[in-house]
Write a sequence for this structure.
């Protein structure tokens, strides 16, 4: 859910610099007349567009951003024709070293009618192949694993990070949204989304209400989201902290997880050039949180070599409480726009994370067509979950005599370990038609895990915390009519 | 960037945001309706590229432990 901003919504903003006088809000996606032919005309046009523009930020329904909790005044007219907005993108994601490759096309269509009610539909397809870390630690000798289905094996070379090469998935997600005025200076939005993979299904509902204050300079929004997930792992759900393979491995039926999220948002116009948003999010999930395909190695505490039961299925707590604070700023310079955001995150698993995201939209007025380029830098770091372990030590956290752990939860998933990540990229955008745009984004992502302390024996000379390098290419096209 | 630097940034961000809230309550911030020309530009919208931002959220949700903030986190994916 993107909480609202009291700025005028561009796709409702009427550029009246050429109009004969105040009129009903039309649906043109033209920016306000920044450069009109005369100061008086510019002032009139800006005032007209502002007075008539609902203070709404539009966005397509998205599973990740389900509810555009938008705010704004009720439009003055119900006679305007309906407007369609199509927003589409294709992502090509590729990790170095034969890891994950993904192609993700997305298309979103929204229709706003004369009563200022917007209906939206968004379809996301996701196709993943490649290899994914299985959680085991590298060894100075080759390692052989059984695939999750139990029907095949794969072997990892000596010293190499253990990657499950059977990794592949397809996901289809559909989101439907409705957004409409709801009383004086309020907007309500509702979103329903379903997502399906061959081993995972999810159903989500969200609602958000936003209200304007202070001459539309301040908007307060509150949103609530519910999600229900069902996990159906290939080969069954492994019972956590049991030997991963062989006769001692235990399986159980499908598992479920329920998520409740609350998001409070404040959007504030600071000045003519500065808009900011401040969100606080709290989420609570209960049920199955483990990754059914992740393992931990059992090693000898002196030699660092595999010992006893060798591999153990991971176990995570059955609940998680997350809190995030997000602060975003949009600052208009003379011509360019700076987008700067910061997020602090923490959860009761012990993860604390900081995210800084900076974009600079550089307008290139010398080139035809309003071309712009937008460099981006994203910096992220997180601490490890309390139960994260690079491995289990035989006779320490694990006993191969009893085949049980002495800890209640353990995971070697690199995503729960401590690491730093950086994204550097550039986007090129070319406005086309009425409020349409072509764009191309190229980005490079680097995730550098902290090397686990106290690696014993053979592990000292191995790369037990390999860097993840990914390249992203994103084509985008949007239009409205 | 060191953790202590990031923590300082976090504290300052929270402080500034609280100041903004306090000032907003006093009606000290904001613009008149005829001063919204720049704010109305597509580039000035907080979520200027919703589909691309949704894809971003999905990527980072699948690679990192933190989620949410800008919007609801997660998003019906079994990838994490």
């Amino acid at each position: 859910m993107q909480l609202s901003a009291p700025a005028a919504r561009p796709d409702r903003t009427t550029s009246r610099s050429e109009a004969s006088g105040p009129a009903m809000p039309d649906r043109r996606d033209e920016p306000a007349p920044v450069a009109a032919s005369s100061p008086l005309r510019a002032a009139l046009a800006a005032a007209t567009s502002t007075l008539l523009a609902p203070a709404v930020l539009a966005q397509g329904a998205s599973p990740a951003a389900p509810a555009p909790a938008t705010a704004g005044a009720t439009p003055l007219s119900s006679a305007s024709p309906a407007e369609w907005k199509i927003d589409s993108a294709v992502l090509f994601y590729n990790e170095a070293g034969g890891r994950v490759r993904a192609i993700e096309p997305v298309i979103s269509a929204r229709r706003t009618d004369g009563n200022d009610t917007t209906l939206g539909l968004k379809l996301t397809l996701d196709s993943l192949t490649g290899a994914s870390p299985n959680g085991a630690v590298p060894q100075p000798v080759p390692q052989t694993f059984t695939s999750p289905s139990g029907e095949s094996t794969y072997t990892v070379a000596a010293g190499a990070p253990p990657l499950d090469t059977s990794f592949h998935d397809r996901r289809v997600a559909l989101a439907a949204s409705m957004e409409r005025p709801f009383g004086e200076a309020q907007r309500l939005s509702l979103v329903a989304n379903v997502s399906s993979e061959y081993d995972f299904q999810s159903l989500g509902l969200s609602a958000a209400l936003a209200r304007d204050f202070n001459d539309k300079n301040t908007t307060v929004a509150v949103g609530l989201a519910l999600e229900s997930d069902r996990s159906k792992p290939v080969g069954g759900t492994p019972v956590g902290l049991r030997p991963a393979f062989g006769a001692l491995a235990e399986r159980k039926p499908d598992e479920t997880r329920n998520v409740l999220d609350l998001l409070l948002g404040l959007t504030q116009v600071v000045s003519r050039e500065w808009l900011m948003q401040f969100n606080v999010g709290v989420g609570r999930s209960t049920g199955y949180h483990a990754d059914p395909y992740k393992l931990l190695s059992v090693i000898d505490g002196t030699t660092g070599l595999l010992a006893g039961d060798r591999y153990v299925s991971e176990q995570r707590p059955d609940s998680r409480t997350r809190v995030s604070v997000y602060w975003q700023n949009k600052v208009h310079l003379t011509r360019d726009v700076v987008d700067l955001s910061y997020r602090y995150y923490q959860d009761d698993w012990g993860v604390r994370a900081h995210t800084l995201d900076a974009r600079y939209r550089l307008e290139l007025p010398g080139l035809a067509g309003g071309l712009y380029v937008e460099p981006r830098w994203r910096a992220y770091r997180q601490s490890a979950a309390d139960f994260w372990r690079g491995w289990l030590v035989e006779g320490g956290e694990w006993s191969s005599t009893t085949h049980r752990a002495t800890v209640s939860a353990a995971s070697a998933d690199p995503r729960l370990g401590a690491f730093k990540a950086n994204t550097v990229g550039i986007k090129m955008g070319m406005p086309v038609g009425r409020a349409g745009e072509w764009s191309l984004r190229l980005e490079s992502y680097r995730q550098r895990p902290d090397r686990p302390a106290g690696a014993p024996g053979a592990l000292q000379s191995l790369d037990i915390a390999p860097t993840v390098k990914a390249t992203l290419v994103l084509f985008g096209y949007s239009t409205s009519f | 960037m060191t953790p202590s630097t990031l923590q300082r940034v976090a504290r300052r961000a929270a402080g500034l945001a609280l100041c903004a809230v306090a000032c907003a309550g006093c009606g000290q911030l904001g613009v008149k309706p005829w001063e919204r020309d720049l704010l109305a530009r597509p580039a000035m919208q907080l979520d200027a590229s919703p589909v691309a931002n949704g894809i971003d959220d999905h990527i980072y949700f699948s690679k990192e432990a933190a989620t949410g903030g800008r919007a609801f986190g997660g998003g019906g994916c079994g990838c994490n």
About this structure: The CA atoms of residues 62 and 79 of chain B lie 5 Å apart. The first helix of chain B runs from residue 3 to 25. Chain B touches chain A through 64 residues (CB under 8 Å).
